[in-house]
Amino acid sequence: MTQLALVIDLNVCVGCHACVTSCKEWNTSGIAGPMTDERPYGADPTGTFFNRVQTFEVGEFPATETVHFPKSCLHCEDPPCVPVCPTGASFKREEDGIVLVDYDKCIGCKYCSWACPYGARELDEKQKVMKKCTLCVDRIYDQSLPENERKPACVISCPTNARLFGDIHDPQSEVSTAILDRGGYQLQPEWGTNPANHYLPRRKNTMTIHPDELKRVDNPLSQEERQAHWGKTEGPSLDDMSSWEDN
Amino acid sequence: MHPAFSVIFLTTLIGVGQGLFLAIYTTEIYSKFQLLAEHDLSSFYGLSSLIAVGFLIVGLGASFFHLGHPERAWRAASQWRTSWLSREVIVLPVTMGLIALYGLSYLFGYNPVLFQTPGGMIINLSLVLGALATLATFTLFVCTAMIYASLKFLQEWHSPLTVINYILLGGASGFTLATALSAWMSAGLTGFYAGLAILLTVLALVFRLASLRRNRRLRPAVQVKSGIGVHHPEIVQKAQGAMGGSFNTREFFHGKKAGFVRSIKYIFLILVFPLPLILLGVTFEQPMFLIPLAAFIAQYLGLIAERWYFFADARHPQNMYYQSIA
Fold it and tell me: Is some CB atom of chain A closer than 8 A to the CB atom of B69?
């Protein structure tokens, strides 16, 4: 069975909010829209979003690290928001595991939002129904789009390629190998919700270079090497430019 | 959580209605076994049952204000297999209907003998309707409380104490109202109800204190470490992705100072328990209608505070993502 999901690399995310704005741009006019904004130019603006980027500071100054953390519906494999829905408006698709809300059935009782430990659902203040990330379900199957654009808007827009999209149940997929090879993890695994979306951890990219490693001692074409063996030679060496013909 | 008054009124009002009906049916059972002085109580049973139905109707009405689309509320009856909310939506009108039929059978004097047990006990219509309504009433208590108790993420609610407290607090307020109604209609049951109301109020106090004690000792099961998957003891939120607040900041935070929340706790601890207990005690000496009525009003106002505190007390795990705006 297919389980579509996002894999988000926290080591790469720079917190630019491009995924947030592209999500809103696509979805507010798509089948999941509108994503109403209330008082957008007032003193106290608020609105509906499917995706938000939050920022956390880890550690104590000066040894701190900034972690940008994009947060959207995780499309849990055992979604706690679905069984609590009294009307059946909240459902998980059999064919691809996407958790969706049927706006025509939702009565706006907010019970599903109480049942989600991730705060992934938001009640639209205008339409009075519960809204959430759809994994751009109106985009990923759209045959009129070029194949490489059949991805969620947030994945396409990410300038650092921090967001991967695919089937986590296919062991050969890009997302599955990323989870396996790069230590992908789930959020709040304690609850047993088994989120489909995974995150790739921050990594320490350090390298130790010893002084002798800066010079390749056994390079027969280096100027210094040739001088040591042959004495002073004429003309440029390969270190400067290719000059086989000249020599 | 943000306490919604629609839900506060729903749960407290239907609690009173359910408790009141249980009080009435208790007397019918006691009379059946000749444990109470016999006299005709038909009009008292009938009127009180309709008052109980009135509380259930007003409670149901209040719940509609909680919905974004009340015109679609009928759809909420469909998912009874998985959702306690859906079960409540089904059981509430069933309870209402059964209590109404029970009351009407007394008011219209239509209470035929259905059959006789081998022991010689006469089983009439009201006894059967009342038994069914009692079953529905307890089912409703369980459904209402399980809406909250079934959410494992909300540790403050995820406990059998939630169900026990809904039953006992609803029962106590219903029996207190029955005391007042009995005094008002001179049904001769004032002392009987006052005694049971005192018993239920004391039991409710014991279990409510137990849940307060349990909740005070709770530690969040999931920390922000696990919430974002960075295993470091020092994690401070610097931005939540929006400056002007969102549904997440409105729905899951009560937004009141700790002192205010604490004062609500003391208000309900006084109004729900000692004050009605004193007034109910006085009722034995002075069975004037106004005294048990005052006990009921105090207890009901206290229950509004109690339910407010019940919601405000629950800390949702999503709040870890909304600790600071920027």
Answer: yes
